[in-house]
């Protein structure tokens, strides 16, 4: 991997952690909007769905960061 790609992976992992922390401070009934990829439109979503998606992304990027550190 080139240094630019490594930095992008680390940055994305950090962004996911920040998002996870922000979501954890919300109540279960909070209105959460998410943006579809490459779309300027936001859609109302359930917090639990967003939490699951973030958890999956976090695991993916944690694996990539571990791979980088090897």
From TrEMBL:
**BP terms from Gene Ontology:** protein folding
Q: Signal peptide position in this chain? A: none
| Residues in coiled coil | 9-36
Residue ranges spanning the membrane: these are none
- GO MF terms, alphabetically ordered: unfolded protein binding
Looking up Pfam families in the UniProt record yields:
Prefoldin_2
| A cellular-component GO term for this protein | prefoldin complex
Alphabetic keyword roster:
Coiled coil
Q: Give the similarity note.
A: Belongs to the prefoldin subunit beta family.
Instruction: Please give the name of this protein.
Output: Prefoldin
